[in-house]
Design goal:
alpha/beta; six-stranded parallel β-sheet
């Protein structure tokens, strides 16, 4: 709530953090951090971190909802981002930062960390083939980060922030069937995408707003509005089981022997 350059979920500087899945979380109401840079994140995959899947999550009033800091093999799938300044960030810091893969720079010895896992040999090489061949496959580029079926609702600054190198590499990216929504057709203060590969823009109006977003009940509970017929028709979005997200109370009591 009171820091910048941070994330509700954070990890970084590791090619071998493969196979983690963040699915069906509600990440909301984070602090703003530095307002100029919008540097509080919902999910922060920092400094070339690779191999994490972000799927089916709801982000509401975070800073940057999802940030990929130069990493690879990070699928971003079927997430719903609502009222965040920046929905998605992908940069190419591996291509531009001199400390990339430098064993002498604090924590940046990416190749050496992978070598410790014997990553070129089974079972690692069989499970993670992109990782096994990384040193012969443009290792500094943020490749194999599919972005599919995500919905970005009323982003106030940018729907997707892609740096210059990423934009040049878009031919290698799997970005498809994403939706940028301006629920009320507001002319100022709501961002849409401009000819960005894999994104469709959708605008409502004050008279006929698009029924997507969060509302608060009289009891103060946040309710999610996701129109399955609209989203499924537009991009094949799979409704998120929002009512099942959160803490559970387990009333099951096991009878112990005397």
């Amino acid at each position: 709530m009171e820091t910048g350059d941070s994330g509700a979920f954070y990890t970084g500087r590791d090619w071998t953090s493969q196979g983690n899945v963040l699915k069906h979380n509600f990440i909301h109401n984070l602090g703003g951090g530095d307002a100029e840079h919008v540097n509080t994140m919902g999910v922060y995959l920092d400094d070339c971190d690779s191999g994490d899947t972000v799927e089916g999550n709801v982000f509401f009033q975070t800073g940057r909802a999802i940030m990929i800091g130069g990493g690879r093999d990070n699928p971003i799938l079927n997430n719903l981002v609502i009222d965040c300044p920046i929905g998605l960030h992908i940069d190419s810091r591996g291509m531009t930062w001199k400390q990339w893969n430098d064993p002498k720079s604090s924590g940046w010895n990416l190749e050496a960390k992978a070598e410790k896992m014997n990553y070129k040999h089974p079972p690692w090489s069989e499970r993670y083939p992109h990782l096994a061949k990384i040193m012969h496959d443009s290792p500094r580029e943020p490749l194999y980060d599919p972005v599919r079926r995500n919905v970005f609702v009323d982003c106030t600054k940018e729907v997707a922030h892609l740096d210059g190198n990423v934009k040049k590499l878009l031919g290698k990216f799997e970005i498809e069937h994403n939706l940028a929504v301006n629920t009320r057709g507001v002319a100022q203060g709501i961002a849409l995408t401009k000819d960005l590969k894999g994104f469709t823009n959708l605008s409502g109006s004050a008279a006929k707003p698009i029924p997507l977003g969060m509302t608060k009940t009289a009891q103060g509970k946040l309710e999610l509005h996701q129109d399955p017929s609209l989203l499924t028709k537009q991009i094949g979005f799979e409704p998120i089981p929002f009512d099942q997200i959160g803490l559970y109370r387990d009333d099951y009591r096991r009878e112990l022997p005397e």
